[in-house]
Amino acid sequence: MKILVAVKRVVDANVKVQSRSDGTGVDTVNLKMSMNPFDEIAVEEAVRLKESGIATEVVAVSAGVVQAQETLRTALAIGADRAILIESNEVLEPLAVAKLLKALVEKEQPHLVILGKQAIDDDSNQTGQMLAALANLPQATFASKLVIAGGKATVAREVDGGAETLSLMLPAVVTTDLRLNEPRYVTLPSIMKAKKKQLDTMKPADLGVDVSPRLKTLKVVPPVRRAQGMKVPDVKTLVEKLTIEAKVL
Description:
This protein has six helices and 13 strands. By secondary structure, it is α/β, with parallel strands linked by helices. A nine-stranded mixed beta sheet has the order 11-10-9-12-8-1-6-7-13, with helices on both faces. Strands 2-5 form a two-stranded antiparallel ribbon. Strands 3-4 form a two-stranded antiparallel ribbon. The longest helix is centred in the first third of the chain and has 15 residues. It holds the Pfam family ETF.
């Protein structure tokens, strides 16, 4: 059983980002970059399936700039067997990534594709669903538990009304939620071993995919800074400020 795991290189979750002065986007110069946290959960789950004897191979894939090799090396250090980088300097939108993954699914023929439910840089939450639609595969999103048995994937997920359990025939697409697992700490020996693992690179053209942007960003600006709060001595003063000054009552 082969598992394909998609990972994305994003600004580290602990870094505070700023918009560029010209408003064309987020300034990422000299910022720490890491693997998208939801994708890290996806890699961990795939590796656990391999360690339990269910999967035989875990392939990590990423699309983006050449520096994304560092992200793939992290996936290899966690336990992936090999990695593939689809190198592109274009701003890759969710649909473009989904098309690239579809082409790779057709080439690699995995039994399961695992992705993070969304990336923390754009929060689009679209790639997994688009991939499932393009590849005509069953899907389960926001997985909080995943069990593989008898050629099926049983996925528990949280929904607005409570909990839901889905049963999917393999091959299938699953996107991960935070509660699925806790990724392991990557040790130095694992990092050293990852440097010797296979990492292939290709271009979108090699997969026959056009990744030209379809969306245009008009302007990116930071959110308006919130006004400083104040303390009031009693409820009467609070009501007066809300009705007379703020005029919200």
